[in-house]
Amino acid sequence: MKRLLLSALLAATLAAQAADETPLDALPYTPSLDVTAMDRSADPCDDLYRYACGAWTQANPIPADQSRWSVYAKMANENQRYLWGVLAKLGDPAAERSPTQAKLGDYFAACMDEGAVQAAGLKPLQPLLDRIAALRDKRDLPGLLAELQLAAGSDRLFFSFSAGQDFADATRQIAFAHAGGLGLPDRDYYLKRDAKTLKIRHAYEAHVAHVFTLLGEAPAAAKAAARSVLATETALARASLSKVDKRDPYKTFHVVDARGLKALMPGFDWAGYQAALGTTPSQARYNVTEPAFFKALGVRLKAMSVADLQAYLRWQLASSLSPALGSAFVQANFDFYGQTLTGTPQLKARWKRCVQLVDLQLGEALGQEFVARNFTPEIKAATVEMTQEIEAAMARSIDGLTWMSAETKARAQAKLKAIVNKVGYPERWRDYSAFAVQRGDFFGNVVRGNAFEHRRQLAKIGQPLDRGEWGMTPQTVNAYYDAQMNDINFPAGVLQPPLYDPKLDAAPNYGNTGGTIGHELTHGFDDEGRQFDAQGNLKNWWTPKDGREFEKRAACVADQYATYTVVDDIKINSKLTLGEDLADLGGLVLAWEAWKAHMVGKTAESRDGLTPEQRFFVGFAQWDCAAARPEALRVHAKVDPHSPAKWRINGVVVNMPEFEKAFACKPGAKLVKPAGQHCKVW
Ligand SMILES: [Zn+2]
Hints:
Helix content: 40-55%
Low-confidence stretches: 9-19
Bound molecules: zinc ion
């Protein structure tokens, strides 16, 4: 249960490329309040987002290899260019390198050697394709499936099987079986019949057929195989939860024992499957996140012919691994997932895809290089202090709530106190020694990297929880709250200008980074996070009346965001975005309170024609100056729990009387609500 500041979909497409891009020796500097990004002709009381970001969006068109562009994305791109420089140096075998540095450099060099990848063609994938071709009897599926899942590094082969914290007891790590198996981002793509969805579905089927031809099928056979894949995925989609339901922890917590697991999918040899994964099959406790999905999968498996199964496995395997294959696979993958689905005109440069792969497969090794050069003890101390001030503001806020009983308040305080602050990087670095990297074998490295990570996760089953583990690499430009760990996590990559700016004063920093810290903290108390207690257990600690009072206040936010448009005729699905919208609002309110407390006895000055209070709000708004392609907005409206940038800014300040006062807004302005109608939860 992890709540991110930015969606994973977005994070995966972050960062751009222009033709003249080169590696960077150092991270470039942009101030956290950038007056050149503002459009002062706009009235902040009507549209703070345009006032703070109007010139930024003008000056920063979406690059050709991106579906979306933003302050975060631009920063992530610079971050990647910097890592490119680091990795290129480590890729020199003559350089002085530690064993870990050699692993990083060799992995990157193998990835960059496009000629070798191209020359190898389908050869590296062939042994796995041969294993699929050798399937004669469906009873042999479990062993084969385990092998392919270890290699593929995705949940695309029917489902995923891994470790997770028990919702009932967060100290316990048990086996989780998650629904998966789809090649499109959401069930709706298979089930809706409107023109835009149908167009994507047809393009998807054509893409699947194209991949089959790349694997050597004749056109007619490829088409038939694609039809069969679509039929299977549609059956699985029908049995999958919606994105809104997936946010409900009670809907994804269904513990069974080995017999219960077997009963969900009779005929599937779970013990053999787990043995093939290399994990002990005797665990008595499994969380099957979506039992209806596994039942439907069992029915489907029974109905499928061996040929249908083989087609499905070939498609999901080749699609999952296409970034590690030759240019025809890479291009086909981009043409559908990049261009058709999200409207991105151009494939990312190879160096960028390689940096992202290193981040994915050797992320904490790369993180050591990043942290050593870019995260000083001073930045750490200052951001830890800001985090503590924001937690203190939250404690005062809880105390002052008029709608919450003393009993629930005490439990909220206990939860707040138990939150662990992780700032910068992990205290203990991940050990990659079991991951063998070979300089001339890019495909092999990717597959071994996938298996290494999968086995690392599986090994946690039945083991004590490592509370020090991070779910993001230190160089990541993002942040998260984890409800079961009950921790907030701010990687070193996000604590850099133009977000956290050690050269600027408190006002924009509290608006920007303070708002982010408050955002993650508030996730512990949003509609989803509030269902977990101080220990990270899914346990109701609210009196029924306090729960209703919370829901009433959360509904104010949901009703407000439901009126906002994402693109064309699509409105925000505010049931999907509620947790993020609550975190955005709560986060900025806390940042404001923390800033005011921080400034007691200090003087804040006006600069650039802006008062300190105005600078707080402009600094806040500039965290998310952004633009997106309409196709990408359509995908995000379906799958992204975050509202579009404009509403993440304007939708927050419209609820803050402090904002109206800072800009002397008049009644009737778009961002002024009548007194008493402001939404406020925390
Ligand atoms: Zn969030």
